[in-house]
């Protein structure tokens, strides 16, 4: 069987797959693998690097692999600094194989890979998966991990530090309750309704408050918001847009845009919080911009900012 080598997360993780297996990389840390038998079943592979000083002994690593649920029947295999746990879930309609692999770069950096293979319950599918799973087990046993700290290991450290920062609650304009890390420097406009949040000398968030009159001809709040957002973004190249609705008539719309410049490009991450009232719509807009060359680090900050926005309240 001919094998082809693949590397991920800037050579943090390397493994070889049969040449006939098709690999589709969805994101930096997510791939989907299909087999010569057709589009189904498919193997999903999720990878990440993280930092966690609390997972510091064999028992805690075991608990992490088991997602905190003790199961004495589950055997965890260890080779050097790499741990493997295999799960099998069966039901009347569908089956699932799950492999969890964790490699430790001492003292406290971790590389994790999760493989998942789902297929419908049938004798034909079971026979196909039986052969495929044997090859997957061989692939997993031969995974290579970088012996040196990589960019993605450093990003894992940054993510842990951001999530460990002490938060302080703020209230703005008698309508927005939001938490920000105590270390971040907030400066509110004296006349205009805006706040600049300095994360560090290179990165900052700008958010502002404004209100518009509600169109009482349209009674459906969802339609009002959809039409409003279409108008707001009509001259913007929108990517990765998401619109969610919470309790009442509160909405969160997010997207990003790439702004090309002479010496490169910027990534603008934008969020709109919207609350529909009887006679008006309250809007809080957030923008977080960084050089696209520093996208990996910027995305870590962006994820943290999004979590703060999602946990805020607009009333």
Please, what is the CATH homologous superfamily of the largest domain? Mog1/PsbP, alpha/beta/alpha sandwich
The percent of residues in helical segments reads 10-25%
The shape, in one word, is globular
Number of domains: 2
- SSE order: EEEEEHEEEEHEHEEEEEHEEEEHE
Count every helix, treating DSSP H or I runs of 4 or more residues as helices.
5
Structural class: alpha+beta
Average pLDDT figure: 92
What fraction of the residues are assigned to beta strands by DSSP? over 45%
State the CATH class of the largest domain.
Answer: Alpha Beta
Could you provide a short overview of the structure?
This protein is 22% helix and 50% strand. It is α+β, with helices and mostly antiparallel strands. Strands 3-4-5-9-8-7-6 form a 7-stranded antiparallel beta sheet, sandwiched between helices.
Question: Can you describe what's shown?
Answer:
By secondary structure, this protein is an alpha+beta fold. It has two domains: 3-151, Mog1/PsbP, alpha/beta/alpha sandwich (Protein Transport Mog1p, Chain A, 3-Layer(aba) Sandwich); 165-314, Protein Transport Mog1p, Chain A. Helix content is 22%, strand content 50%. It contains five helices and 20 strands. A seven-stranded antiparallel beta sheet has the order 3-4-5-9-8-7-6, with helices on both faces. It has a seven-stranded antiparallel beta sheet with strand order 13-14-15-19-18-17-16. The radius of gyration is 24 Å and the shape is globular. The protein starts with a strand and ends with a strand.
């Amino acid at each position: 069987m001919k094998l082809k080598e693949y590397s991920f997360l800037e050579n943090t993780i390397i493994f070889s797959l049969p040449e006939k297996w098709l690999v589709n990389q969805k994101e930096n840390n997510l791939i989907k693998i299909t087999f010569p038998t057709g589009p189904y079943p498919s193997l999903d592979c999720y990878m990440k690097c993280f930092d966690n000083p609390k997972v510091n002994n064999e028992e805690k690593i075991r608990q992490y692999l088991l997602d905190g649920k003790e199961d004495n029947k589950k055997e965890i295999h260890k080779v050097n600094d790499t741990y493997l746990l295999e799960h099998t879930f069966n039901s009347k309609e569908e089956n699932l194989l799950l492999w969890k692999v964790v490699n430790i770069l001492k003292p406290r950096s971790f590389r994790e890979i999760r493989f998942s293979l789902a297929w419908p319950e049938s004798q034909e599918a079971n026979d196909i998966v039986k052969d495929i799973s044997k090859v997957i087990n061989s692939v997993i046993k031969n995974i290579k991990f970088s012996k040196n700290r990589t960019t993605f290991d450093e990003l894992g450290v940054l993510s842990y530090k951001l999530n460990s920062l002490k938060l302080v609650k703020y209230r703005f304009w008698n309508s927005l309750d939001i938490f920000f890390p105590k270390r971040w420097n907030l400066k509110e406009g004296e006349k205009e309704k805006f706040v600049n949040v300095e994360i560090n000398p290179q990165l900052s968030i700008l958010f502002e408050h404004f209100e518009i009159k509600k169109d009482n001809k349209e009674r459906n709040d969802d339609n009002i918001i959809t039409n409003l957002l279409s108008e707001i973004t009509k001259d913007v190249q929108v990517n990765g847009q998401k619109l969610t609705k919470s309790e009442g008539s509160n909405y969160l719309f997010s997207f990003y845009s790439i702004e090309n410049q002479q010496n490169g490009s910027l990534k603008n991450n934008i969020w709109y919080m919207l609350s529909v009232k009887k006679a008006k719509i309250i809007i809080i807009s957030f923008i977080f911009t960084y050089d696209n060359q520093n996208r990996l680090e910027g995305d870590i900050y962006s994820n943290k900012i999004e979590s703060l926005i999602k946990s805020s309240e607009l009333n």
